[in-house]
Amino acid sequence: QADLVESGGGSVQPGGSLTLSCDISGNIDAVHEVGWYRRQVPGQQREEVVTVTKDGKTKYADSVKGRFTIARDNAKNMLFLQMKNLEPEDTATYYCNVIGDSGETFFDSFGPGTQVTVSS
User: Fold this and answer.
1) In the predicted model, what is the mean pLDDT of the chain?
2) Which listed residue, 8, 14, 15, 41, has the most CB atoms within 10 A of its CB?
3) Are strands 92-102 and 114-118 parallel, antiparallel or unpaired?
């Protein structure tokens, strides 16, 4: 099982930038996919922002292409989401996600989330 903690959220004006971080820990033997999701309205399903498979295949949501970049520091077990040219529509709680195996147990873990608010 992976333990994930996001940080770096905050309030920013339209056009601004933020970088989110995700600290990854736990007993992880294999990672199948990592990514970032967001929930814009409480109670709604999380929306996929970007995912990266173990083969390096990266998929961004159309709404963030060219503005958001996912990065990973394997040595520090960290995942990042660099966000530029933020728009009010990007306001959401952002969650990092890791899908993998812990021993023979499959897991699909999310952190508690970090809030991003974009407004003037």
Assistant:
1) 96
2) 8
3) antiparallel
- Please state, in angstroms and rounded to a whole number, the distance separating the CA atoms of residues 44 and 49: 15
Question: Which uninterrupted H or E stretch holds 18?
Answer: strand 18-26
Entry field: residues in the chain: 120
Could you tell me which residues come within 8 angstroms of residue 10 by beta carbon, excluding any fewer than 6 positions away? 18, 115, 116, 117
pLDDT tens digit string along 46-87? 999 999 999 999 999 999 999 999 999 989 999 999 999 999
Nearest Cα to Cα of residue 27 among 64, 61, 2: 2
Question: Both tokens of residue 95?
Answer: 């969650």
Spell out the alpha helix ranges (H) of 1-120: none
What does the block give as tokens for 17?
Answer: 């930038």
